[in-house]
């Protein structure tokens, strides 16, 4: 296993609409293990493949931090599809690719997702609250969408300005 380098906004790889996985082989399983290790080391509760520069429809989640006494439970989602959304929840989100910025985002309270695990086995999972938020946040990543995109134009502008100030990374630098 090895830690992968996390990509930060405004790295253009974070804006790519990722491709489906077509081969469930040892290379894929190695990638998934590296993603999990990178997520735990960060530490984070979710990581999508483009965040380590891989433009594939893969993300991993472990939300045990919602219950600190809970056992680690790694969930792997490959070629996921959210098939049902219900209710509404506002959650203060952050992102490993946008360090130090936290903003309230409105999401569905409950989601049902269909996906494959790293062995190509299909599964369906219904999650609520933090798990549902994490699934929606990570699923956005594989379509090139960041949580800041869900804010109102004014709040988004302020968030990016604060991010530039805190991180020294600006939109303008990305275009060079
Ligand atoms: Ni994120």
- Sheet-strand content, in percent, reads 15-25%
The CATH class of one domain turns out to be: Alpha Beta
Order of helices and strands: HEEEEEEEHHH
Q: List how many beta strands DSSP finds.
A: 7
Whole-Å distance between the termini? 34 Å
Strand order in the largest sheet: 1-2-3-6-7
Give the C-alpha Rg.
16 Å
Give a quick set of tags describing it.
176 residues, alpha+beta, Peptide Deformylase, 27% helix, 24% strand, binds nickel (II) ion
Tell me what you see in this structure.
- There is one protein chain.
- A hairpin with a 5-residue loop joins β6 (110-116) and β7.
- It is globular, with a radius of gyration of 16 Å.
- It has helices at residues 26-41, 130-141, 153-167, 171-175, and strands at 46-48, 58-61, 75-86, 89-93, 103-107, 110-116, 122-128.
- It is of the alpha+beta class and 176 residues long.
- Nickel (II) ion is lined by residues 95-97, 137, 141.
């Amino acid at each position: 296993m090895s830690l992968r380098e996390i990509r930060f906004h405004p790295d253009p790889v974070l804006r790519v609409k990722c491709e489906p996985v077509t081969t469930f082989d040892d290379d894929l399983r190695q990638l998934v293990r590296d993603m999990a290790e990178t997520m735990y080391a960060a530490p984070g509760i979710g990581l999508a493949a483009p965040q380590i520069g891989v433009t594939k429809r893969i993300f991993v989640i472990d939300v045990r931090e919602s219950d600190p006494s809970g056992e680690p439970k790694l969930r792997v989602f490959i070629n996921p599809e959210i098939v049902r959304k219900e209710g509404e929840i506002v959650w203060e989100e952050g992102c490993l690719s946008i360090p130090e910025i936290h903003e309230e985002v409105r999401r569905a309270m409950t989601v049902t997702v269909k996906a494959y695990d790293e062995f190509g086995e299909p599964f369906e999972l219904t999650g609520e609250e933090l798990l549902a938020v994490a699934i929606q946040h990570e699923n956005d990543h594989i379509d090139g969408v960041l949580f800041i995109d869900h804010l109102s134009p004014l709040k988004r502008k302020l968030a990016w300005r604060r991010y530039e100030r805190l991180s020294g990374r600006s939109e303008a630098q990305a275009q060079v």
